[in-house]
Each structure stands twice: as C-alpha cells, then as structure tokens.
## 1
Amino acid sequence: MPNFKYKKLYTLLFLVVTIPSFYFSNTDSLINISNSLKDTARINAFVKIAGEYINVGEMDKAEKFLSKAHDENTIAKNKTSELYIALKNVFFNYKKSKFKLAYELGEEALPIAINLNHTSGIAECKMYMGMCAGRLGDFKKALEFYHQSLPLFESLKNVSMQMKLYSNIAGVYFDQLDFKMAIEYFKKTLYMAIRSNDNKVIGQTYNNIGSSLSNLKNDKEAKEYYLKAVKVNLLSNNKYNLGYNYMNLASCEIIEKNLEKAKEYNKEALKIFTDFKDPYSIVSCYCVDADIFIEEKKYKKAIEVLETCVTISEKTGSPLLMERTYKQMATAYELGGDLKRSVTYMKKYINTRDSIINDEIREEVTKKQLYYEFDKKSLSDSLEAESKQKYLSQELENNKRSASLQKNISLISLLSLLIVGVLAFYIYLGSQKNKQASKIIEEQKRIVERKNTEILDSISYAKRIQTAILPSNRNVKQYFKDSFILYKPKDIVAGDFYWMEPVNLPTANCILFAAADCTGHGVPGALVSVVCHNALNRSVREYGITEPGKILDKTKELVIAEFEKSEEEVLDGMDISLCLLDTKTKKLNWAGANNPLWIVRNGEIIEYKPDKQPIGKFEQAKSFTNHVIDLVKNDCIYIFTDGYQDQFGGEFAKKFKASKFKEVLLSVTEQPMEKQCTLIDKAFYDWKVDLEQVDDICIIGIRI
C-alpha cells in the first residue's frame, strides 16, 4: 500500500484584508451617517460600507452598496470615487475567489490611480493584482507587483500595508516550497505586528509560521503556533482567522491519529468559512475532510468530497487548489483500487504542479527578490555618493568665502548677542505660560480623577443599596435549609436580582421566590431592576396576590404604568421565573416570563417552559400561565437567568448553552446544595477562562 503523505500547502492564511482610511467597527452607524451625507461623501461612505460587509463575509450586502456607489457616481462623475469603487470591486471579486476577473478589474483600475497620481491607490491596486496573480499561479508577476507596491507604502509610512506585503511575499516563497525563506518574512511581519500591537496580524502570522514549520516536518512546534494563534484570535474575536487555525489543527490531529478531534476542529472551520461564503477556504476544509476519510479507509466518501473540490477549484482557476485536489483524488482512487483513474489524476497533478513549482520559476522569484534588494542598495549607494560630492563642493566654496566671512564675525557676534537676549526674553515668557498651562492641566486632571472617584463611589453606594434589597443569606437559609444562590453581577451593580417573600395563607405558610433578569446590566440594568423589584413587592404586599401567574400579570401592569410616565417610549422590562412553594404539602405553583423552571428528579431533568413574553410592553401580550406541580422528596428545583448559558468560552469560543448547563446540573445533583454551587461556579470559570463575562448571572437551587 502506498505511503500517503499529507500535503499542507493549503493551510497558509494570506493577509489580504485592506484597511480603509476611516474605519467603522459598527456598520449600522456608518449606514446611518451615510443617509445624512451628500454627493461624493455619500458615495465614498457606500464604498466603505461595502468594505465592512466584505470583511465579515456579507457579500450580497457588499454588492448592493457597491452597486449604489457606482450608480450615484455615474451621475456625480467623481474620478477619486471611481477609483475607490474600482479598488473595492477588485477586492470583492478576489474574496469571492474570482481571481481572473479580479485581476482584469485591477488592470482597469490601475490607470485611473496613475492618472490621479493617487499613491495609495496605485500601491493598493498593485498589491491586489499581486494577490490575484499568486492565486492564479503566476508567482513572478505576484512578486513583481508586491515589490512595486512595497516602497509606495513605505513612503506613505503605512505600516499596516507593509505588514500585509511582507506576509504576501512570504506566501510566494511558501508556495515555491522555500519554507525557511517564508518564515524569515513571516517573522518580519510578526515583529512589526507586535510593535504595532496589531492582534489580528499577530494571530494570522502565528498561523502562517505554524504552516511553514509543519511543511518542514516540525509538527510539534507548528501545533504550538496554531494554539497561540487560537488564543490571540479568540481574544480579538477574529472568527475568519480562527477558521484557518482550526483547519490546521485538524491536520495536526490527523497526523497524530486523533480523527474525532480532527473532525471537531474541521467542522468548526467549515462553519466559519461557510458563514463567510469563501469558496477557496471551503475547498481547503473539504480537502481535510477527505484526508480524514482516507485515514478511515472510506475511499468512496473521500472521492465524493473531492469531486466537489475539483469542481470548485477548477471554477476558481487557482492552480494551487487544483494541485491539492488532483493529488488527493489520485491517492483516493489508488487506495480504492481504481488505478486507471488514479493515473489520470496523477497526470493532472504533475502538470499543475510543474506549472507553479519548477526550477525556472524559483530562479525567477529569486532574481526578482535580488533585483529588489539591489535596487534598494543601489539607490542608497547613489544617494550616499551624491551626498559626498555635494559635501566636497560645499567645502571648496566655504574656503573661498572664508576671508570675507572673517571680516563680518564681529558684527555677527554683536547681532547674535542681541538675538540671544531677545530669544531669552521670549523663552522666559513662554516658560511662564507653560508653567501656567501645566498648572491648568494638573488641575483638570485632578478634577477628572475626583469625578471618576465620585462616580465609582456613587456606583459602589448603589451596590450597597441593591444588596440591601436582596434577601440576606440568613433569611434564605431560614426559608430553605438545603439551598444555594449563585449571584455574579457582570459589573459593580446588576440587572439580575433574586427575590423572596414569605406568604401566610389561611391553610399554610408558603414562600414566594424568584430569579429575575432586567434589561441590560450595570447601572442601566440596576435602575430597571429597582422598578421591577418594587412592582413585585407591591403586587404581593399592596394587592395581596399570591398566585405566581397573577403576580406576574399585576407586576407587568405596574411596570408598564411606571414607564408610561416618561415622554419617551420605554421598552425595558424583565424576564423572570417565579415560584410559590408550600413546604409542608410540597406543592409548587410556578409561572415564567421567558425564563423556565427545571426540576431534577431521579437523575432526569423535567423542564417547564415559560410564557414567551416579558414583564413589559409586548405586542402579543396575554395573561401568564400558572402551573401547579406536586413535588417529591429530594427533588431539586432550579430557576435562573440566561447569563450562565450565554457565556462564551471553551475551545471554540462558543456559548455555554442550555444543553451543557443541564449536563452540569445532572453531574452535581447528588451533592449537597452548597457543594453544587461551588461546582457550578467552577464549571463556569473552566469554560470562560480568559474571556470576559458577558452578562449578570443568577441561579437559585433548592432541594425538597
């Protein structure tokens, strides 16, 4: 049986995302701004919006705004806007893996940039054309364009674009299998990225160095770089780059024979690239799937996947993709026993490989690099020689003038003293003004610091007030001996709260208790929580209501009435899970607004679903449903807000979700309630690790 070797050339992540002059992280705000702009400013805003949508894979929306920009500029006829539209159109088609079309559009855009003498536009266009040429396998042309655009970006002091070009130049060496030279250029990129504190580029470059090391058979160190990249990209929420990290880690796991782990990684990568609608990267993921099927000896499945890869890669016109898929097809058919088709695809593979990797191309790539380095050195040498010649000529001229200058020394000295005196006077005045300005700045700094302290003190005092309205631990234990409350505000004060109220009914003593989640967190959430907490108290104490469903109806009525006092429409409100427990009869009344009730009984979770409406304004409002439940001894009741389930974390920075929360509860249900609280909290931190807590958390657990 042939020795199947994984070829990892497809694992490189190029740095191709442009950074527009004005960056808006919030596309919606840019759209709103564009509506108030006119003429050229409006057109340019449309182009920037299109760029934002391209960066997040929303290609349909990007096309819509590019079309808007083009239509409006047909009337405005602004040449600079025409250039911006043309460049964004090149990038748009590149991201859709239409490399040939993108290159042709670049050829049309370049003369526009040259006629406008638009240095940045010329550099950007040549960089795009280099990227397209590289994807189409013309590495000589790619390197030529990169070396033409690099000095332009250097003259503009555009460090971001310089990093991208260094990375793309490294990519040329990578594709020519010169991995050591590729690593040199990637390390240049990494050095600049670290100095610029650019986490996006740092994450990309860790991935690229890992890919180069992997192809040098240094798989252990490669995996370390991939994991570094994952950590950086998770912290910067860079999902597209994470896709490449996961795909590369899948390849590492295949080599280590951890196929289930490989499937998990590649599934996450494919999901990301599908969201971004990136055919090039999707094919790369399918190729990893084929690797897994081949390892599992499922050759027919591998061939089915690779047939799709061949179709897409031939459509993109990228010889790099075609080379990869042809090689895998040949291997799959050979291992599956179809030698005739294996030979056919092996021939295709060899022809494609020879078109992009041969001694002539490698020599030409090396020449291009040497010429570039020589041109830079020659320019430096010629400038130095010219400088020396000017210096010698100047010295000769100075000697001729020496006698004449000597006569004027006395006069110059006198004038110098006068000038120095005047300057000293003005410097003194300036220093006095600077001292005064420094005093003002220091005073303003003290004011800001004092205000910050006052604000923090106010919020901290608000926390004391909010804590005071929560049931004390002593009261909780008085009502429910075997219970816990896990309460973790995201900020100093919270929108979540828990509530308990003893109720004396004619037939029994009962306890009302609830876990509530008000709109927002921090100070806004805390303000809403005060209104909702007060409404709950009034519903029970003032109106004497004890049935949970009716309490929620009245609370909703009171909250809406409170907010309607404002001239502006207030849509804030509360989600809540509310219980009334008769501790003697073990009868539970429950109602929920968006938040459920879970009961663990005999190792299973019984879920009671809430009414899908909040405490607050709602178009399809209805009365809340009251559920009556008979409990049995050792039942565990859990009510909670959504903060625990919504926390991002884990290996793939995904939400914790209800299913995993249920697993945690089932794993701890035999423990005493206080121990459960500790274990549930630990599971939260193990999941979250270094990521920020996203919302307030409130969980109440009670054992019957």
Note: The first strand starts at residue 483 and ends at 488.
## 2
Amino acid sequence: MNKKIIAMAMAMAFSGVVGMSNAAQEPISQDVTITGHVLNEISCQVKADATLSFDNIEMTQIGTLESGKPLANGAAKPYMIAVTKCPAGQKISVTIQGTPDAENVQLVALNDAPGAAQGVGIGFWDTIMATNEHKLLAVNDNSSLPREVNSDGAVNIPLSIAPVQSTTEAAVAGTISATTSIKVNFL
C-alpha cells in the first residue's frame, strides 16, 4: 500500500512539474515574409518588328492624306503586330505615340537630321483585312479598331505605314527617319 501511495504521489508531483513547465512557457511568435505581384492587366506577349525600312520612294508616290496617294501608289509598307498568350475574348487595340509633325499633327514627325526630307511625315493606318479599307491612326489621338483574341489566345493587328506629304508645299527629297512607340491597349 505504501508503494501505491508513493507511486501516486510521484505521479502527481510529476504532472504538477509538467503542468508548471507548460504554464510558464511564453508564447513564441514567428515572422513570415509574404511576396508576390498583383497585375493590372493580363501578361500577353506582343511581337512586332523593331524597324521598318523603305526602299527609294519617288516623289510621285508621296501625296497628302487627302489625296490617298500614300496608300494607292505603293509607298505604304505592311506592318503586323502579333499578340499571343492572351485569354480568348480579350479585346485589343493599338495607339501610335510619338512626336507629331509640326505641319500635320496626325503624322509622326521625321527625326531632325542633316539631309532629312522636308515637308514629309509618317502616316499609320489600321488595315481592315476583310474590306481592304484603311483608317488613319492620328499620333497620340485615336486607336485602331478593337480586335478580339481568338480561342488560340492570339490576334493580329495589321497596319500600313507610309511617308506622307505633310504640307501644301511640295516635299523636298531627303532621308526618312522617324521614331515612335506603338502602345497596345487591353480593352
């Protein structure tokens, strides 16, 4: 019987020590660093040539916007913007950004360089493939027609780019060099 009392007393003493040990334990806090990135828009991929070169263009091929000559006389070059890896149904358009021509603000100005053509700017047109119609994209102003991403996650935006006579005065022959940005808009 003494053995039972001693065993019980020891068990009670041990549980009291364990209980006191747990009661005396202070809470432990652990810092957690959380990182990530919230996107405003979908990360579609855009592919377009970084340069466009014109061959020698005859003065007769350059005309004013009103004349329609830049597109009709073969001076225009096609320029394709391919957008991929987008969700199907996403609507996309493009806007031309840059320095407008001093005489015609709808056109991109040529870079000011020795030997540069005078009275000439660069025009950008949205090309509607089904009808072969063209809509002028005025610099820093309007956007192309919205295009919808297909079920494969892709859409092409075809443009036509051409030198255009920017004044009522005759253009002066010279080199053509211009720099602009094409902004892709997610609608």
Note: The chain is about 15% helix and 30% strand.
## 3
Amino acid sequence: MSSLGNAALRPGLIILDMSNDDWAEISYNKDDVIGNILQLAQSDFFHLCIESKKSVPKLKALSKGPKLVDALQKINGLQHVSKKMESAVQDSSLLETLQKSGITHVCICGISTDTSVLNTAKDLVANGFHIFVVMDATASKEGTTAHETGLQAISSQLGADVVVSVDDLLGDDEDAAAATQLNEESQRKDTTISPEAPKKPLSEMTDAERAEEMRRRDAEKLAARKKKFDAARFAHIEKANAKAQEQEEVFKKRIEEKRIPGAKYTPTSTATPVDTGKKVQPPCDKRKGWKLIYKKKEPPVVSIEPSKPLPPLAGKNERPDNVRQAVTPGWAAVDKKNERPHTYVHSSNLNCKGLAHSAPSPVNPTGQKFIPHDEPSYKKVGYGASGGSKPQMDGVSVLSKISGLQGNDPAKKLQGPRSMAMAKVKESKSESFDAQGNLIRTITRHITDPDGKKRTETEIIEIPKKN
C-alpha cells in the first residue's frame, strides 16, 4: 500500500451487515466489537461512513430484524447501501458513492470476517482502492476459529499490513506529533517541487477548513503508524537474521573444538612439541565412529623390511593337490587272496541266495566251533505257554491243540435262498392320443411271485378330451 502522508488522501469507513438478525448470531466479544465500530464511526478521521447490508423484501424490511442495530443508529451522516452478494461491491452503488466522495483509502469492519469482509476487501483492491481491515471491529458468525481464518486469508492474499486494530488507526497524541513532524520534514524537502501556502491557525479557519485540517492530520497519523509498523516488521526480520548468523558461528566453533574432519585444528597447548620419531595422533572425539573416519584419512603403511624366502615344497606338512600319488598294494584293505566272487543277481530274482560271506565263523581259543550255552528261545516257549523254563517237545503241543480245535468245530448249516413274503412288481407307463383327441394311458406290470413264477399284466385307461 502507498503512504498516507499526503493531505489529498481521503479515508472512508464501511460497516458490513450489522443488522439485528446477523448480529444475533455472534456469540463472542459482542460488546468490544460494537464499541470499536462506534468509536471508528464517531471519529473525525473518516470523510465518509457507509453502512452496507443485505437487501430484503419490502414486507420483511418493515420488521426489526433487517434494521441496523440500535447502538449504531445514533451515528450522524451514515449512508446506507444495500448489497445483493457476499461482496458489497458487486451489484451495488458502493463504488459510485466512494468515487463521488473522492475516497482513496477504505477501512472495513462488521461481519462476517471470513465471507463478506474478505470478498469486499478483495473487490476494493481490484478496483484500485487501498484498504485496511480492522481486526477488533470485525467478527464471524461461525465463531473465533472462522474469524482467525478470515484474517489469515486477508493477510496472505492482500498483505500483512492490511490487518490493523483500532489503536493502529486512531493512535495517540505522540503518534500525532510524530506524524506532524514527519509531514513538515517531507514538505520542506518538496518545497521546490510543490510549494504550498502557509498554514492558518485553527482559530482563523472556518468550520469546513477546520474539519478538513483535522481529517488531514488523521491521515498523517495513519501514515506514521504504518511507517512504524513497517520498521518493526523489518527490525524483526533483521533480528532473526542476526540470530541465525550467531547460531552459525557457534556451530562452526563447536566443529573446530570437536575436531571433525575438514575443520581447522587449533592446538590447546602452547608448549613446543618434542620430535620423538613416532607419529603422534591428535586428540579426537571418543564417540563411536570417529576413529573409522580418521583411519580412512591415514595413508596405508608400507613395510620396508626384506621379505623372507618361501619354504621348499618338501618342508610343508601337506601334499600338493596337483601332484599324482603312487598307489601302493593293499591300499583298499581288501584280502585279494581269500576274496570270493560276488554273484550279481537282483534281490527280486527267485534264484538269489544272498551275498557270499568272506569272513570265517568265530572259533574259540581251543580251535573248536563256537557253541552257545543257552538253548534257543523258540524251544522253551510253546503255543499257549506262559513263558516258563520247562522244555517241551517240538510241535507236539501245537499239533494237538490244532487237532482238538478242528474236532470240536460245529458243522455249518446250509440253507437255501430266503422266500419272498410279497410279489415283486416292475411297472412301466405309456400315453397316446386317438383320432378324437382322447388320452389313452397304457400301464404294463411285470410281476414275480414269491414262488418264483413270472407273469405280465396290462391296464389301459382312457381319459376323454376336455371341451
């Protein structure tokens, strides 16, 4: 926005949607908002005050809801402009009213911050006006969150210096004196360009000249306030940059102290080091991983000692892999003298008698054949025995038991086929139509009697045609 330190600039005030119906939907800071709007409207700062509200049908306009709130009805010289859209600029006479009055800077207040105030501000900027949105003289029907969201949208889209407060606009006596001094200095610098007539004291001015002079001073006060805001904003940026530079210097200093590779190393001791012929490793951080970095920086160690000759092949305790070894007799531990031929017969062949045994049977030291002292177990226990140690004859008890069981086996009774209690019937059906259209159904039954005789029965059923 351009500077307001010029008497030709004329500020105006727009109050949006402050009807009883819309005001009833506000649930926070109602007294502060209505008081700030009244303070702005009653000050001599603005050349024009416009109240813009939604257009309603004629019958509804007679009720109290669409009318201006009671606290703002006592404002003198307030002009009313109806609007049909969210923006007070679209489809209304607001632009024409502002241009006729010569308004260049517009201050916006009222409701709602996130809808009507935002859209009106954007349209006024698009039409060449310089605007301010008074944050403590606006509110939103959706609550404080929507109000803050609307102010953030205005700041991001139209500029951070657009959103101001009532104190920023009206200021105090010190700001007014500073604005007057600033205006006098600027006028002294520009006397060669645009000389002005000497100012009259307020006591010698007419009412119209006195009012114009007061509005001019208010404009200068607003310009001084804006300049103060800009200086504070740039000072904050410079302070942030200085803080970042200071942090960077501290970081560089810490890097040098911790001996990170690539940083400049400054020894802490001033004593002259003694050359002992050994490589001295500078002190480094004991954290894990730094030693690996220092090892990478060191050059590889080259040994200058003469290499020893390799031992001869015979002196090694191993045989080389690429030399063929001689095969000694008997290396496979096989007795070639007593070896027997192996019969290559598959185990599934009935003529296979198994492998030939090459090892002799065990013998005792006297040269006699080894005979076990214990009798085999199958001679001790017979069929049905309890496992006692009394010897029995081979197969006597088993054969006698089998013959006894076979002799006492009862003879089986052979019987013929079971007789049937009822005849067995198999039935088949067939249907056909005669020349008159009657249905003829033929049923054939094949019957087997209980005594085994077979016979056939045929049944014919005539079903007349339906008329």
Note: The radius of gyration is 62 Å.
